[in-house]
Each structure stands twice: as structure tokens, then as C-alpha cells.
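## tool: complex_structure
## caller: assistant
## args:
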Amino acid sequence: MGQASRPARVKREQYPFTITGIHTLRHGTAVGAGSEFGPRAASIEEFLDSARADIAVELTTLNPVDGEPAISHIRAAFARRMHVVTANKGPIAHAYAALRNAAVLAGVHFRFESAVMDGTPVFNIWRHTMPGVRVLGFTGVLNSTSKVVVETMERGGTFEEGLAAARAMGITEADGAFDVEGWDSAAKTAALANVLMDAEVTPQQVSTRGITRMTPERLREMNDQGKTVRLVSRGRRTPGGVSLRVRAEVLPRQDLLACTPGSSNLLLFHTDLMGTFGTVSIEPGVEQTAYGVFSDLVSCLPKM
Amino acid sequence: MGQASRPARVKREQYPFTITGIHTLRHGTAVGAGSEFGPRAASIEEFLDSARADIAVELTTLNPVDGEPAISHIRAAFARRMHVVTANKGPIAHAYAALRNAAVLAGVHFRFESAVMDGTPVFNIWRHTMPGVRVLGFTGVLNSTSKVVVETMERGGTFEEGLAAARAMGITEADGAFDVEGWDSAAKTAALANVLMDAEVTPQQVSTRGITRMTPERLREMNDQGKTVRLVSRGRRTPGGVSLRVRAEVLPRQDLLACTPGSSNLLLFHTDLMGTFGTVSIEPGVEQTAYGVFSDLVSCLPKM
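## result:
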């Protein structure tokens, strides 16, 4: 990660967390403040028992199918009465209600602000600032890769060139299909619905169609008509339960959902008492994701 | 106000506040839960002494020149050890630091979420969710009237027709000049700078130019070039202090600042650790302002 920036160093002094252990797939395991990586611990349980932390931070790569192994990691931490902070949307999208209940039973905190929109306040807005308001639905433009692909095709490039451009920007998962087929958006949609609307769904229950059927010809045709395409996540309460879908929607160029620059994301909440309002993140990167984890860590501290 | 909507009634049962008195310029004064309006109390002090509330809610009309009489009302409430909630940006724009200090001395809360963006979380985001982050600046499109005037002229109408349209929508102050000359935006800019950047400024210190020099011809010319105009509030820290300005800025039609629909507002925060993120309110009305006051009331309650 190189040298920390000056503000980051100042903040570290203000919030003196100690890292008691790091457990990774590639680099092995380190236990004890400031120690080097050694051989990998035999299991997550062995690692957690030796690291003896107050807070476990779960940052494994998203498994879109079932949210594992992150869910098991989190359960193992709860079993040891550790608070858990995660930036991984998988556990929230697949098992939020069960994990929230397990945290309550263990008497610990469970925080995941970076799971959607990289540290921009989403879940914390609802945790702290909206007393008495019920979320009736939401509308979000939450996937950056699909947008880069659309914009590449509008400029005359191919689908594959768009995916390569997104990969070069560092915003695409190892498997870009996950983004353009809509599964990244479906996981975020399920996570939002589980936390804000008690939906108890999995990403598989989100009606999902990606942008894979878009062609450069079709996009340039729409462009000539002042229109574009965005992968839009929508959730709403219906008499039959929470309805969730991800679609490549055709939008006027001046639609708020179409106007976020670059890799920016936008999320609108539809509510009973507060009408529609929302949150926007401009060109977020790994620093913002890291900040979300940091703010979650701070929220696990005893109140002063 | 007519019949309360169903969700509003349910919420009233969940949050049983009692109104102990109402003091108005036009309708006189009522003291005691459920009592009728009678003659106006002789002074704000007399009213506050008779109403004996835990929380005073200040909702007088904004005086852009000096923030009075709201500032005196708030001081009178603090002197009686009442918490204060206000939706009035005047006191925040003109005297925030002094009022905040007075509240601390009196051991009471001072809340004003609706002063900017009508109940959409702005100040509460910073009160509750961004530990360790410093606001370096902000960019906002915060005045709806000027936007309606611009859009009217783009469609071929006159400046005056635009003002009349905004007045018909109920979004314009009694004196529309206050909006189009930029003073409403300047007051919001000063309020944001005072609270989020410790600026200790007044609206008079914001470099302000409104949209009054715009003509229908100029706007249609820009429209043909894919551009439009928005009244933009900007604040940033400089080595010489906080720099604040309000300008009619020429923007591409697809700029995020130009894309908010109707009377919607958008505010972006520029920060040290969290890059740029922001908040948006879609077509807010008096219900949203009222919600901001309500959420402020809830935040004055003892923590359960």
C-alpha cells in the first residue's frame, strides 16, 4: 500500500487501534502487533483464538453464489464474542437476518457500511438519522463496470473493450461477467432490501437482467436520441412482499440516474414521511472502502 | 394543515410529544395542551415562561439581513434551559458559533437539520456518521426558485414568468428577489460553512452573484450548445481561511449539478479521507421540512 498519506497518519494517532493479527489466503498469517507473516493458520477458528481481538474485520473476496466463506468467518467471530466489521456484501445479501440475530445473541456489534457504496453513508443514515421513517423502496445505480462498458460502446468501442477498460480502472471483479450480467447489482439490491426492508432474500431472488444484450449499434442509436442505458437496481414494498429487480434501463441523458460521473454511484430512498432523498459517491476507490471499515471500527468502540 | 396522513398519525402515537404552547405573529398565542389561540403574549419571554416546555421550536420567517428575531428567540429559550430546534437558516448563517456555545453553557441541545435541504440528512450525517473526516469544501445546488426561472426562460418565457411559476409552486420566499439575487443560497452557504468548517461568517461575507443578469436569449443560446445555468454554492478551505461564493454557473446539461429534477437539491462534500460524496433531496416540500424538525425533536429526547 506504500506510504500512508499525511491525514491518514494523523487519524491513526487519533484512533489508536492495534492490529492483533492478519489471516490471508496468499500471504499467510501474522499474529501479534507488528509481527511478520508466517505460515497460514490451519483454520479461521485457530486464527481467531490466537489473535484474541475485540473486533474481527472480514474482507474476503465476494462469493456471489452463497456468501461463503465470509458467513462462516463471521459466525466464528461471533462465537468468540468479537464484534464484526465487514466490507463484504455477500453475507449481507445472503444471510443478514441470521447474522444480525447471532450478533444480538452474542452481545456484539455487526457493521458493514462499505458493503454498498464504499463507505458513503448508506446503512449509517438509517442507523442514526431517520427516526420513525419507513423505507418503501429504493432506486440505485450501483455498478460502475456496466457503466464503463456502455460508455465505451457509445464511443464506438466493443463490449470486450469496455470490460478491458473497466478492468484497467481497477473497478471490475476478477470475473467481469459478474458485473455485466447484473449479479454485483443483485447482491447489492438484496443487501439493501435485507437491511432496510427486512426482506430476508438472497441475490437469486432478485429478478436480474444485465447489459450483455446491448450492442454498440443499439447504444449509438439511443445516443442519437438523447438516451443512454444504466444498470438500475430497484426495490419496493408490494402487498405480496418486497419486489426486487435489476435491469438495463433506457434513460434520458439528463436523468439524475444517468448523470453520475465516471465510476460514481447514486442511491435514492423512497419513504413514507420523508419523500425521496438519497446519497451519492463521486468516483469512489479503495480508500473510500477502507474509510467505511474504519468508521465501522470506530462505531464498535465503547461510547465515551 | 387539514387531516394528517395515516403514517403521520401512526408516528404521533409512537412519539407522543405534547405541544404546550404556540406563539405566532398572525394567530395570537395558545398556552396549554390543546387550548385555543387567544391574544398574543406581550413578549417571547412571557410566552416561554408560561409554556414551560422542554424544547422550543423556532419557525419564524427568515430575516436575511441579520437573522433576527430568531436569534433572540433562541437565546431566550436557552436562558430558560430549553433545548432549541429550528428550521430557520438565519440564526445558523449569522450566529452559529455564539448560539452553539450558549447551548453548551446552558447544557441543552441545539438542532437545525431543516435549515438546509429540508430534512434530508446534512448536518446529521456529520453529527453521527463520519468519525475522523474533515470537510475540505462543498458544492451545492440549493435554490429551487432560480432553477424554475432558468427553465422557464429556456422554454421561451420571461424572467418574471419564471418567478411567477416558482411562486405558484410554493417554493419562493415572499420576496422572490431574495432567491434570484442569490441571498437564499448565500445564507445556506454561510450556514454550511459555519457548522461544517467552523467558518464564523455571515451571508454578507459570501461572494454572491445571482441569476438576474440572465436573459431568455442567452439561455436559449446555451441550450442549443447543450448547456444550462445553475445557481451553485461553493465553499473551500484556503490558506487564508474559508472561501465562499455563490454564482450562476454555466454547466453541461449532463453535469450532475444540472440534473436534479424539478425543485430537487444536491450537495456534495469534499473531504480528506472520504473523497467526495453527497446527499440529494428529490422535490422536497413542507412535509420534508416538518420531518427535519421532528427528527430534531427526537434527537433532544433522553437516550433510551
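## assistant note: Chain B touches chain A through 49 residues (CB under 8 Å). The radius of gyration of chain B is 20 Å. Handing back to user.
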